[in-house]
UniProtKB/TrEMBL annotation:
It comes from Nocardioides ginsengisoli. Pathway: Glycan biosynthesis; glycogen biosynthesis. The keyword Nucleotide-binding applies. It holds the Pfam family Mak_N_cap. The keyword RNA-binding does not apply. InterPro entries: Kinase-like_dom_sf, Mak_N_cap. Transmembrane segments: none annotated. Belongs to the aminoglycoside phosphotransferase family. Its EC number is 2.7.1.175. SUPFAM superfamilies: Protein kinase-like (PK-like). This is Maltokinase.
Amino acid sequence: MIESFLAQRRWFGGKGRTFSVTGTRELGRFGAAPEVVVLLVEVSYDGTGDRELYQLPLAVYDEPQERLDHALVGRWPIDAVEDGAFAYDAVHDRAATAHYLQAFATPPASGIRFVRLPGHDLDLTAHGTPFSGEQSNSSVLFGEDSVLKLFRKVTPGENPDITTHQVLTEAGSTHVAQLYGWVEADDLHLGMLQQFLRTASDGWDIALASVRDLFAEADLHAEEVGGDFASEAARLGLALAEVHEQLRASFGVGTVTGASLADAMSGRLTAAVAVVPELGQYAERAAARFDALASLESVPVQRIHGDLHLGQTLRTVLGWKLVDFEGEPAKPLAERLLPDSPWRDVAGMLRSFDYAPFAVAEAMPEDDPDVLHQRSVRADEWARRNRKAFLASYCGEAGLSDTDRTLLTAYVIDKAVYECVYEARNRPTWLPIPLAGVARLTAD
Ligand SMILES: Nc1ncnc2c1ncn2[C@@H]1O[C@H](COP(=O)(O)OP(=O)(O)O)[C@@H](O)[C@H]1O
Ligand SMILES: O=P(O)(O)O[C@H]1O[C@H](CO)[C@@H](O[C@H]2O[C@H](CO)[C@@H](O)[C@H](O)[C@H]2O)[C@H](O)[C@H]1O
């Protein structure tokens, strides 16, 4: 029963693999009519020994609720066959999400703890609406006041999305949505409540619109077109520099050897070649870039975003905000919590500027070789211009030292290699984007 429900959810990471539910545990319950029951579900992947934990908040009703048919998980208790109550995914039920909001104001006596930070009067009258965009977790918007993100795949221990937002909120950062509180049970972080950014537009969407404007004006250069993105790219660079500075001040700085970073990158490259054999032709030249990194004795590391790209940035009337500090979802939590070089985040953004023109071109099929040539020149120009604006602004007056350049080059290659595997598995028609990136980055 739960298996078929999971298999159809966008947020379930085990789609396409053979799995079964090997355990369920009730973490706590609160509210009435419906009662919200928070279930922890253990998923095991056949023949691999891999196991994952998923959070399933349920709205439990005595009678079937037709309006929630699409969110039916099954009968409750879960092993009741015919005479049990009815359990629905709580995220989709306005009455259940109202219990969540109320619980932040009046914490219930329950295994589920609701922690609230001072400084914001919650609008307790706001209705909960499930977020309809693409995401790996499940968010509920409470009017124009707050957003509750419930984590789906959970791991015991600290969730960096909460702890990083907490530190940045307390430091007064203007580049994140303020953290209002979080939900936890045992040693699990289950969700977080944040400021709703009412005037936000997705950075990826704005970048695509800018490229479309450029392609529509074949004779003009990027800087001559109305939708030029370079000043936004520069503001993003400054925002990231400020966030990194605040994270350094709050979490501190450590050091690691360049050799340890280079080893990890080489290992990831070897694993990636096994998935994307076309990468093999660039392996030797990529290794030379990693060797340069290995020669650095000491590399500063700190808390970073960990998975930064244009889709993790929001432009509001008050400037750029960064969202989703959870790190790369595929990495184990322990790895995501390790301090890393801030150049990883810079590299993620630089790669995103390469992606945008290709994504637009892919959505505008064209046979005329002249138009195609013109577009490819413009695409290159757009990416180059925005990479340059972002980087110049991130580095500020200090500019880019030789050591910075060595680090950045290695991190950008590492990210493009990661993207090759990501695209091969998720969007094979987009594989040429990161492959072209690896080719360019490793060219002499
Ligand atoms: N505080 C916020 N206010 C408004 N929209 C937000 C906020 N935080 C995130 N979003 C939107 O929700 C999307 C998903 O959020 P994100 O934190 O990336 O979720 P996930 O971890 O599930 O991928 C973002 O791409 C952004 O468009
Ligand atoms: O946002 P997620 O944490 O789920 O990140 C994963 O998916 C991203 C795609 O949605 C992927 O990003 C890649 O594609 C983006 C365009 O869709 C592009 O802007 C990024 O630069 C590129 O890396 C990300 O790598 C992956 O981890």
